[in-house]
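User: Can you model how zinc ion sits in this protein?
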Amino acid sequence: MSCIFCRIVSGAVPSDKVYEDDKVFAFRDISPQAPVHILIVPKKHVAGLNELSDEDGDVVAALVAVAGKIASSSGLKNGWRLVANTGPDAGQTMDHLHFHILGGRKLTWPPG
Ligand code: AMP
Ligand code: ZN
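Assistant: Here's the modeled complex, given as C-alpha coordinates:
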Protein backbone atom coordinates (compact mmCIF):
# COMPACT_ATOMS: atom_id res chain seq x y z
CA MET A 1 0.00 0.00 0.00
CA SER A 2 1.80 3.13 -1.20
CA CYS A 3 -0.78 5.79 -0.29
CA ILE A 4 0.37 7.56 2.87
CA PHE A 5 -3.14 8.50 3.98
CA CYS A 6 -4.27 4.86 3.57
CA ARG A 7 -1.30 3.93 5.74
CA ILE A 8 -2.35 6.53 8.34
CA VAL A 9 -5.90 5.12 8.34
CA SER A 10 -4.56 1.57 8.86
CA GLY A 11 -2.21 2.73 11.63
CA ALA A 12 0.93 1.73 9.70
CA VAL A 13 1.99 5.39 9.71
CA PRO A 14 1.50 7.25 13.02
CA SER A 15 -0.73 10.31 13.18
CA ASP A 16 -2.20 12.67 15.75
CA LYS A 17 -5.72 11.22 15.51
CA VAL A 18 -8.66 13.49 16.27
CA TYR A 19 -11.64 11.33 15.24
CA GLU A 20 -12.49 7.94 13.75
CA ASP A 21 -15.65 6.07 12.80
CA ASP A 22 -16.50 3.35 10.29
CA LYS A 23 -16.19 5.66 7.25
CA VAL A 24 -13.99 8.59 8.30
CA PHE A 25 -10.59 9.26 9.90
CA ALA A 26 -9.34 12.70 11.03
CA PHE A 27 -5.87 13.73 12.17
CA ARG A 28 -3.80 16.88 12.69
CA ASP A 29 -1.90 18.21 9.69
CA ILE A 30 1.84 17.67 10.07
CA SER A 31 2.51 21.20 8.80
CA PRO A 32 -0.26 23.34 10.30
CA GLN A 33 -1.25 26.50 8.46
CA ALA A 34 -3.51 27.74 11.26
CA PRO A 35 -3.82 27.13 15.03
CA VAL A 36 -6.36 24.41 14.19
CA HIS A 37 -5.49 22.45 11.03
CA ILE A 38 -7.08 19.02 10.82
CA LEU A 39 -7.40 16.67 7.82
CA ILE A 40 -10.51 14.54 7.34
CA VAL A 41 -10.24 11.57 4.98
CA PRO A 42 -12.49 8.71 3.91
CA LYS A 43 -11.21 5.32 5.08
CA LYS A 44 -11.90 4.10 1.54
CA HIS A 45 -9.21 5.22 -0.91
CA VAL A 46 -10.56 7.87 -3.31
CA ALA A 47 -7.92 9.94 -5.10
CA GLY A 48 -9.80 13.24 -4.94
CA LEU A 49 -13.08 15.02 -5.64
CA ASN A 50 -12.73 14.30 -9.37
CA GLU A 51 -12.61 10.57 -8.69
CA LEU A 52 -15.79 10.36 -6.57
CA SER A 53 -18.48 8.07 -7.96
CA ASP A 54 -22.24 8.10 -7.52
CA GLU A 55 -21.94 5.45 -4.80
CA ASP A 56 -19.76 7.73 -2.64
CA GLY A 57 -22.56 10.06 -1.54
CA ASP A 58 -22.74 8.56 1.94
CA VAL A 59 -18.97 8.97 2.39
CA VAL A 60 -19.07 12.64 1.36
CA ALA A 61 -21.98 13.30 3.67
CA ALA A 62 -20.08 11.65 6.52
CA LEU A 63 -16.95 13.72 5.84
CA VAL A 64 -18.86 17.01 5.90
CA ALA A 65 -20.89 16.08 8.97
CA VAL A 66 -17.72 15.09 10.83
CA ALA A 67 -16.10 18.39 9.82
CA GLY A 68 -18.85 20.30 11.58
CA LYS A 69 -18.55 18.18 14.71
CA ILE A 70 -14.76 18.57 14.85
CA ALA A 71 -14.95 22.33 14.29
CA SER A 72 -17.43 22.57 17.12
CA SER A 73 -15.42 20.37 19.49
CA SER A 74 -12.26 22.35 18.57
CA GLY A 75 -13.92 25.55 19.80
CA LEU A 76 -13.97 27.32 16.43
CA LYS A 77 -16.90 29.53 17.42
CA ASN A 78 -15.67 32.52 15.42
CA GLY A 79 -15.48 30.71 12.08
CA TRP A 80 -13.52 28.12 10.18
CA ARG A 81 -12.93 26.93 6.64
CA LEU A 82 -13.34 23.58 4.88
CA VAL A 83 -10.96 23.17 1.91
CA ALA A 84 -10.41 20.40 -0.63
CA ASN A 85 -7.50 21.28 -2.88
CA THR A 86 -8.15 19.50 -6.18
CA GLY A 87 -5.51 19.11 -8.88
CA PRO A 88 -2.22 20.90 -9.54
CA ASP A 89 -3.58 24.45 -9.84
CA ALA A 90 -5.08 24.14 -6.35
CA GLY A 91 -1.90 22.63 -4.92
CA GLN A 92 -3.15 19.12 -4.19
CA THR A 93 -0.12 17.14 -3.03
CA MET A 94 -1.72 14.02 -1.52
CA ASP A 95 -3.75 11.80 -3.87
CA HIS A 96 -6.21 10.55 -1.25
CA LEU A 97 -9.31 12.74 -0.86
CA HIS A 98 -8.99 15.01 2.16
CA PHE A 99 -10.76 18.04 3.56
CA HIS A 100 -8.73 20.57 5.53
CA ILE A 101 -10.40 22.15 8.56
CA LEU A 102 -8.67 25.48 9.14
CA GLY A 103 -9.43 27.84 11.99
CA GLY A 104 -8.27 29.66 15.07
CA ARG A 105 -7.14 32.77 13.22
CA LYS A 106 -8.55 35.28 10.72
CA LEU A 107 -8.39 33.59 7.30
CA THR A 108 -7.77 35.65 4.18
CA TRP A 109 -10.05 35.65 1.14
CA PRO A 110 -9.47 35.01 -1.69
CA PRO A 111 -6.87 32.36 -0.81
CA GLY A 112 -3.54 32.63 -2.55
P1 AMP B 1 -2.92 19.11 -0.05
O1 AMP B 1 -1.72 19.96 -0.38
O2 AMP B 1 -4.23 19.83 -0.10
O3 AMP B 1 -2.91 17.83 -0.88
O4 AMP B 1 -2.76 18.71 1.47
C1 AMP B 1 -1.93 17.69 1.92
C2 AMP B 1 -1.67 17.96 3.38
O5 AMP B 1 -1.20 16.77 3.97
C3 AMP B 1 -0.60 19.03 3.63
O6 AMP B 1 -1.19 20.09 4.38
C4 AMP B 1 0.47 18.27 4.41
O7 AMP B 1 1.07 19.06 5.42
C5 AMP B 1 -0.31 17.11 4.99
N1 AMP B 1 0.47 15.91 5.28
C6 AMP B 1 1.32 15.26 4.47
N2 AMP B 1 1.82 14.16 5.08
C7 AMP B 1 1.26 14.13 6.32
C8 AMP B 1 1.34 13.26 7.44
N3 AMP B 1 2.15 12.17 7.42
N4 AMP B 1 0.62 13.53 8.54
C9 AMP B 1 -0.18 14.62 8.59
N5 AMP B 1 -0.32 15.47 7.56
C10 AMP B 1 0.38 15.25 6.45
ZN1 ZN C 1 -5.28 6.24 0.03
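A couple of observations from the model: The chain has a mean pLDDT of 97. The CA atoms of residues 13 and 62 lie 23 Å apart.
User: Helpful, thanks.
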